[in-house]
Amino acid sequence: VGAVVGFIAPLLRMVMFGMPPFYVAIAMAFELLTYGLVSGIMYRKVFKKQTVGTLYGSLLIAMVAGRIVWGIVKVILSGIAADAGAFTFAAFISGALLNAIPGIVVQLILVPAVVVALQKAKLIEALSAEKA
């Protein structure tokens, strides 16, 4: 579900509001698809115990994977369309790390808080000490 929502959200926003621009929305769609897919797999299938620590671990791994996918898609798009611009390694570091620091911090604060709140409201399965 996270992968589907992650892919659709930037594209829907682009269609509804005209932002982000087309090439940015495409790269974001694949990045967020990766976030949803990797975090779900890591949290539910790979880590044997579901704790706040494994939630953070899943989130960090998903963020790294998503940024890598974003970079790959940006390289592909820059090769396909002349107006997408050249995408260098310096541009990747800038976009994936330096310019993304505020978003990374917000995600590390909000995502675990939202997950815990949803679990307390019994809207999603609660964290458990043992999960097989």
Structure notes:
Helix 3 (52-80) packs across helix 5. Residues 128-132 have low confidence and may be disordered. With 132 residues, this protein is mainly alpha-helical. It has helices spanning 2-17, 22-46, 52-80, 89-98, 101-120. The protein has one domain. It is globular. The chain is built from 5 helices and no strands.
Short description:
By secondary structure, the protein is mainly alpha-helical. It has one domain.
Quaternary status of these chains? Answer: single chain
What's the β-strand tally? 0
Overall pLDDT confidence? 85
What are the low-pLDDT stretches, counting only 5+ consecutive residues below 50? 128-132
What is the H/E string?
HHHHH
Task: Please work out how many helical segments DSSP would assign.
Answer: 5
Count of separate structural domains: 1
Distance between the termini: 21 Å
Whole-number radius of gyration? 16 Å
Label this structure with key terms.
132 residues; mainly alpha; 5 helices; 76% helix; globular; disordered C terminus
Explain the layout of strands and helices:
Elements: H1 2-17, H2 22-46, H3 52-80, H4 89-98, H5 101-120
